[in-house]
Design brief:
The chain is an alpha/beta fold and about 220 residues long. The protein contains nine helices and eight strands. Strand 4 (about 75-80) and strand 5 (about 85) form a beta hairpin.
Length: about 220
């Protein structure tokens, strides 16, 4: 049986991870959070005292020392960095910014892309990121560009952090998110953009459950 691949792209804070994770669970697919993989590289570099924006050569030098694993448990997907569970640590704002920095490095993208493609060959997967439709899985049976206004995306992230008891400032989050949008969209290697054959889904006016049902509908229609 041929494996089914669902590719979902979109800007930071669009809800790609949470929506994709839920859809995958409900439909029996494997969810692959590519953003978590870039975050893991960034976390490793930051912990080594490397400036992810200014010291890209040092990031490249670290790649052979980085092993990323995705484990599936009863409590959900867990990310292991060199054998250590970093599922919570990679969600820090400084790591989010670092992930955007390392994602512009061609050698990082090539290393992680190879891992992602191997994963997609072995199971029915939902994979989300910035260039999954156009670059990582160009032959995916379902391609979606998931987005929302920067205001809506920032508010969702703000509320998410508050619920976790993390002090934060809405304007700072919004400014950081818009900076990441610019960084991701203007990078020379695989910039963030909607693939010509991807379906645009704007969730600005949709709640979480409605967004999940919309994605499920698109997948079912394509099967």
């Amino acid at each position: 049986m041929n494996c089914i691949s669902v590719a979902i792209d979109g800007p930071a804070g669009a809800g790609k991870s949470s929506i994709s994770r839920t859809v995958a669970k409900q439909m029996g697919f494997i969810y692959i959070d590519t953003g978590a993989m870039y975050r893991s590289v960034a976390l490793y570099a930051i912990d080594k005292g490397i400036d992810t924006r200014e010291e890209k050569n040092k990031v490249i030098e670290c790649l052979d020392d980085i092993k990323i694993e995705i484990k599936y448990t009863d409590s959900g997907q867990r990310i292991l960095l060199n054998g250590v569970d970093v599922s919570e640590e990679i969600r820090q704002e400084k790591v989010s910014a670092g992930a955007s920095d390392v994602a512009v490095i061609p050698q990082v993208r090539e290393r992680l892309m190879d891992m992602q493609r191997k994963m997609a060959k072995s199971a029915n997967v939902i994979m989300d990121g910035r260039d999954i439709c156009s670059y990582v899985l160009p032959n995916a049976q379902v391609k979606i560009f998931l987005t929302a206004s920067s205001e809506a995306r920032a508010m969702r992230r703000y509320q998410e952090l508050l619920e976790k008891g993390i002090e934060c400032d809405f304007e700072t989050i919004k400014n950081d998110m818009e900076a990441r949008d610019k960084n991701d969209s203007s990078r020379a290697v695989s910039p963030l953009k909607k693939a010509d054959d991807a379906v645009l889904v704007d969730t600005t006016e949709l709640d979480f459950e409605q967004s999940v049902e919309k994605i499920k509908e698109l997948i079912k229609n394509a099967l």
